[in-house]
Amino acid sequence: MSSRRDATPVELCLNKVKERQQQLDELPLTDHYISTQQCLQELRNGSNTFLEVTQKVEEIKKSRGHTHNKEFDNLETELLLTEDLNQQKKRCLETVLFVSEIENLLQNVESDIEARALYLSQRPLVFDSVYRGEDVPAQSKIHKDCVSAIRKSWSWIQTVNECLGIHIENAANYHQFYHDVRHLEENMLSFLLWMDSSTVRAQVKTQDPNVMLKHFRLIIKQLLDYQGQLDLLTERSRDIHPVHYRKELPEWPLKARALVQYQHKHVSLAKGDFVMILENSDAER
After folding, report:
1. How far is CA 72 from the centre of its chain?
2. pLDDT 10s digit of each residue in the chain, 285 long?
3. Cβ(187)–Cβ(233) below 8 Å
């Protein structure tokens, strides 16, 4: 009975590479701040461990010199694929973390709101005064006005929070739209490079019309698919809010709609009113 052959160094490395590919595939893309941090740390730990495999492949490559075979070439291909998958996963998790960090900011705001409520509930009486006969009506009015103003102030904070939800939705749609635009652009550029490659431009040696027909159908199908995606993006663009104008206005006046009723000494707006924004650098105005 023949004994089982021991795996070669190339086979051992290839097995490790395949294991790493499976780990990357199974590593989830979460949407929470803490879980995303944990996934990133897990990715880093796996990358550090996988570095030993990369170094081992380099050692095998040096020992072989210029003598390569199909097995080693396959290992190098899989290794490059794994490194690319690792980089893509890392970039994606970092992007998710950049978004989910907003959760941490909102939690800090929540803690501050609760701290203010606790402080105000334990604060000494604002209207701790000696009531004299003729002063009682005036002091009572001030007290009632103050209670009403504080209630309205908390109500206004809730209104601002509702506006924040709208701004978050607009920002998310803005980012997703431009992400999809960039993704389509890269796909189209790759397709055009393939169309201009020597493989596609080479003289066709077949006389079979079905082969030619299949080739043209493939190209037309891909172009029609791009046209469909472009039409969808064009339709979506009508609902995308120009978030970048919040940071820097264009040279022309910008039309905007009031999300809530707003009023102070210089401005009075009803919900849904349209205004022309000329300048927005001063938050106090």
Report:
1. 38
2. 445 556 688 888 889 999 998 999 999 888 888 899 999 999 999 888 888 888 888 888 787 665 667 888 888 889 899 999 999 999 999 999 999 999 889 989 999 999 988 888 877 665 554 444 455 666 677 777 777 888 888 898 999 898 999 999 999 999 999 999 999 999 999 999 988 888 777 777 777 888 888 888 988 999 999 999 999 999 999 999 888 888 888 888 888 888 888 887 778 888 888 888 888 776 655
3. no
Structure tokens given for 184: 């389509």
- Give the global pTM: 0.71
Largest CA distance in the chain: 115
The DSSP bridge partners found for residue 257 are: 274
Measure the CA–CA gap between 142 and 150, rounded to whole angstroms. 12
Contact status, residue 34 vs residue 95, Cβ threshold 8 Å: no
Q: How far apart are CA 219 and CA 81, in angstroms?
A: 27
Q: How far apart are alpha carbons 148 and 152 in whole angstroms?
A: 6
